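Write out this protein's structure.
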Amino acid sequence: MFRTYLLPVEAAVLVFPVVVAVIMIPVAVRGYRRRGRAGGWSVLVFYSFVFYLIAALLQTLMPLPADTDAHCSVTRYAAVPQLEPFAFRHTVAGAAGGDWSPMNLLGLAPAWTTLLNLVLLLPLGVYLRYHLRRGLLASGLLALGTSLFFEITQYTGLWYLYACPYRQFNVDDLALNTLGAVIGWFLAGPLGRRLPVNDPRPERLRYGNRVTLTRRGLAHLLDVIGCLVVWTMATGLLAVLGTLDLAAGRRWALLLAAGIGLVWFWLLPALLRTTPGKRAVLLRVERPGGRRAGFRRITARTWLLYSPFALLWWWAADRADVLPFPVPEPVARALPFLLVAAGALVWVWSPLAAALRGDHRAPYERWTDTVILAVPNRRERRDARPVAPSPRGRPEAPDGDGESPETDTATDGAELPDPPGVEGTRSVGPSSRG
């Protein structure tokens, strides 16, 4: 009997890493924007919540019938929904045979089914109050909706994937699931007082202005993924709309790669002081102390930082005969050596120099006098606005956007000037290496 209930948990253990791989980057971006970091207790609670949801869903779906035709020809009870409230009492009483002792009930399958239906959504009530900060009424309605989704999924045969329902729609399950979630909501009160406070504001104050290696790495990863997606879509569109042969398609692919890369990694930072990836995690290129970095400084920084990619493209374009002018033979022979030298400068010497120096600045940052600084999120910018006095002499509250601190997703302020009196306060010194 217990093997039936353990099988969905085993399946959840296998599915969970796949789900984490899909949501890990969006979760990290939200963490940097809301709390200033991608790890910590809040992230651990969130991923445990994700695992619980997967296990709860699989608990209502598994085990799946191996032979659909045979199952539909034999199983009849699931085709008729059970709509009598509290029918589980008669089922348990019939199985108990008048013996209501705990030892007898422990050996009855209907008693275990009733108990498991009660505790299935109990953790959901805890998460709704502690992690999502929902009230009792909202938590009860969400639990009822979740249970209803499970029951409809069963009654439709996994949304008509199977020819017939393989598990019964039971109104008692709705009541027991919802009651369990309500019990969990009440248990979350004393439990939450013994757990760390789930409030992003203290974490934001502590970690929001830190420019760590992982934060910069995530920004770079987002830029690379975004640039590759745009390039793939553009080249695919040309292939669908055009009549290019293989050689012409290769040339256009290289030319598009150069154009998109120049816009993404050079023009956008030079004009806006940030890339889409940096903007996502609230980073911006500036001079030390928060002074604005000009076009020339950011241009020099960009070409030094991405010189290996530029040389690699130049070498590939020369080999594919894309360039409108031939590369001189001495330069063509020197390109591989220049590529190795640039890679050693950017990917080997720069991290080592930044790690050994006290200010943790890479050589290309010192040469261009630029650093990467964190910028405030939307809530911090809103709170830093000057407060206009009211006609009665009382300060008026700053204009809000209707969002509470718990739900503020924070858009980047990379394009907006820092509020008066806050210039440079987001910096905690020179940036991390890389």
